[in-house]
DNA sequence: GAGTAAATCGTAGTCATTCCGAATTGGAAA
DNA sequence: TTTCCAATTCGGAATGACTACGATTTACTC
């Protein structure tokens, strides 16, 4: 998803267009990796010094609920990135050095649903952690 | 892993046998599902009212480090369960109602390592969330 | 049984996140 | 364009999980 699509989605869901929301979404579009609320605040501190934490947290949660963002929980923090909606269902490799993500199309959920016939399955999480090629050589 | 094996492991790593550690490990053996530090404190409150949070957190972390426990992060909390060491590498289905877990032998990591030849892969997480058969009918 | 390092206690501190009342503002309606 | 109001934001306080730390107690060795 890109910035313009995200703004359309916001409008269609009855949300207002505010400078805070524009700045947060522009940042996430540019970074293309998982950022925490704190990361967002730091990155916007210069151009938006008065943006409160409440605003950052509330908007990130809203965006995540309406699927503009993808969300995960890592190292005791909630982290967010732009939703990859050009592709179907997918997961990510996450570089623990730089935060870079790599899309993975592999998902074993078909086998899981077959293996658990009497269970209701609502959700799942599949994430791979390590170092990306850039950080392998750098470290 | 069971209580006795866990106590052996503690001894072999030079840890002392204390009433706190016994109580925590007995509880986790009995429950056989993911518990948070808070869950542990509540469950032990009657018989061990003076056990401090420091003791609970420190011991859960130690046990996790030495692979007596398995650990995950769920709903903003660290959760722990006895390590399933009779079986090889595995993952879990986790019931969001009662916390019951079901072992999954399915894991797609071979395909992932093939798909990411120039990445260093250190770890991964694969969890499935939903309702177990008991909670399906109850809910 | 005495000595010592480990473990625990009680409490205070940290950090991410949420809550809340007051002030501001985007955007529809007049 | 101006008015208006619910949505949004701000600032700061509150919450909750987790960690840190000095003082005290305890498990284990000799």
TrEMBL record, chains A, B:
Major subcellular location class: cytoplasm
Biological process (GO), any one: regulation of secondary metabolite biosynthetic process
GO cellular component: cytoplasm
Comment on bound cofactor: Binds 1 zinc ion per subunit.
Alphabetical keyword list: Cytoplasm, DNA-binding, Iron, Metal-binding, Repressor, Transcription, Transcription regulation, Zinc
SUPFAM superfamilies tied to this protein: Winged helix' DNA-binding domain
CDD domains: Fur_like (cd07153)
Binding site for Zn(2+): 95, 98, 132, 135
A molecular-function term among this protein's GO annotations: transcription cis-regulatory region binding
Pfam families: FUR (PF01475)
Residues given in the record as Fe cation binding sites: 89, 110, 124
Cell compartment(s), UniProt: Cytoplasm
Cofactor(s) needed: Zn(2+); Mn(2+); Fe(2+)
UniProt keyword Transcription present: yes
Entry's family note: Belongs to the Fur family.
Protein name per Swiss-Prot or TrEMBL: Fur family transcriptional regulator, zinc uptake regulator
The species this protein was found in: Bhargavaea beijingensis
Lineage: Bacteria, Bacillati, Bacillota, Bacilli, Bacillales
């Amino acid at each position: 998803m890109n910035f313009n699509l995200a703004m359309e989605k916001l409008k269609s869901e009855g949300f207002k267009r505010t400078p805070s929301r524009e700045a947060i979404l522009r940042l996430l579009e540019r970074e293309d990796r998982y950022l925490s609320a704190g990361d967002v605040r730091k990155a916007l501190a210069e151009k938006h010094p008065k943006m409160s934490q409440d605003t950052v947290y509330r908007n990130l949660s809203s965006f995540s609920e309406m699927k503009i963002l993808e969300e995960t929980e890592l190292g005791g923090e909630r982290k967010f990135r732009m939703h990859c909606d050009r592709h179907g269902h997918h997961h990510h490799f996450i570089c623990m050095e730089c935060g870079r993500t790599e899309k993975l199309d592999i998902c074993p959920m078909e086998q899981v649903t077959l293996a658990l016939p009497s269970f209701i399955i609502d959700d799942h999480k599949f994430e791979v952690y390590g170092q990306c090629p850039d950080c392998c050589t750098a470290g």
